[in-house]
Design a protein that fits this description.
Blueprint (H helix, E strand, L loop, with lengths): L4 H16 L1 E5 L13 E5 L8 E5 L3 H10 L11 E7 L13 E6 L2 E6 L11 H19 L1 H17 L1 H63 L8 H38 L5 H5 L1
Helix pairs in contact: 4-5
């Protein structure tokens, strides 16, 4: 595979991000105008092992030899614990690189470390380097955040040009289906939350109604117990027995009243027999 400088540089940056868990900047000056500009620069996600690294990408032997002779890579040591050259496999060997530098080679199978750099301690970076990393980092992180979306739209556009509108339509449909799925999932989540809130409200209302009804029943039971001559906290079976006894007494009182009424009617009938008969009755 034939590489351009920029393509190999970005491929290297992606490899370092994914395989070494580092923050990576590409083609960035390490300060104001005139500062060194490594092809790639990385910092580890670590508080305890501060090992910034600089990378120099080469796609031709002539360019490699010219920079090695000029000592360009040495200007990176002010900002890096080590310097690594990166090149297509077969272009240079580890015997070609300066002493102390590392070598990464890119083949069809991917990147391979041919030689690790010799690391030296770095306590901190110059202030201008931190400022440049921060300024450049903010802009590049925004670009990385939207890179996937931009790449997908670019891919769809290229496919539409090469394979026609039918395949392109399928890709658009895929994006639309994914959007509908995400929207439906969000809607279901909202509905589930609303249903749970309604369920909890229903349970709370039922609990309050039950407590209110229980209070009314307790009040009525207390009044009934007192009416039957029992203490307010009488138990249910005591209230039941007292009520049954009262019913029996009421039934007995009703029978006495009936007999008394019958007796009074008999007494009245007897009294009417003792009265003098009318004149017409005696004549007969």
């Amino acid at each position: 595979m034939t590489w351009t400088h920029d393509a190999l540089q970005e491929d290297l940056a992606q490899y370092v991000r994914e395989k070494t868990q580092r923050m990576v900047w590409t083609n960035m000056q390490m300060g104001p105008v005139g500062s060194p500009r490594p092809d790639a620069y990385s910092l580890p996600f670590s508080f305890t092992r501060f090992t910034p690294l600089a990378y120099e990408v080469k796609i031709s032997v002539a360019d490699f030899r010219r920079d090695v002779t000029a000592g360009k890579w040495q200007s990176y040591l002010r900002y890096a614990a080590g310097v690594t050259f990166a090149a297509p496999a077969g272009l240079i060997t580890k015997g070609d690189i300066p002493e102390g530098c590392g070598l990464l080679l890119r083949s069809e199978a991917g990147w391979r470390a041919a030689k690790a750099p010799m690391l030296r301690p770095v306590e901190n970076l110059p202030l201008e380097a931190w400022i440049k990393l921060l300024i450049d980092g903010l802009e590049r992180q925004v670009k990385l955040r939207f890179a996937d979306v931009a790449d997908e739209y670019s891919l769809i556009h290229r496919v539409e040009q090469r394979l026609g509108k039918e395949v392109s339509r399928l890709l658009h449909d895929r994006r639309a289906a994914r959007y509908r799925y995400e929207s439906a999932t969000e809607s279901l989540n909202k509905s589930a939350k609303a249903a749970e809130a309604e369920y909890r409200k229903t349970l709370d209302d039922a609990r309050k109604n039950a407590e209110r009804d229980a209070a009314r029943i307790d009040g009525a039971r207390t009044e009934l117990a007192q009416a039957l001559g029992l203490p307010p906290d009488a138990r249910t079976f005591e209230i039941t027995n007292a009520a049954q006894a009262a019913a029996r007494r009421l039934e007995a009182d009703a029978e006495v009243q009936r007999l008394r009424s019958l007796f009074e009617r008999v007494e009245s009938a007897i009294a009417s027999v003792d009265r003098p008969l009318p004149e017409i009755a005696r004549a007969v």
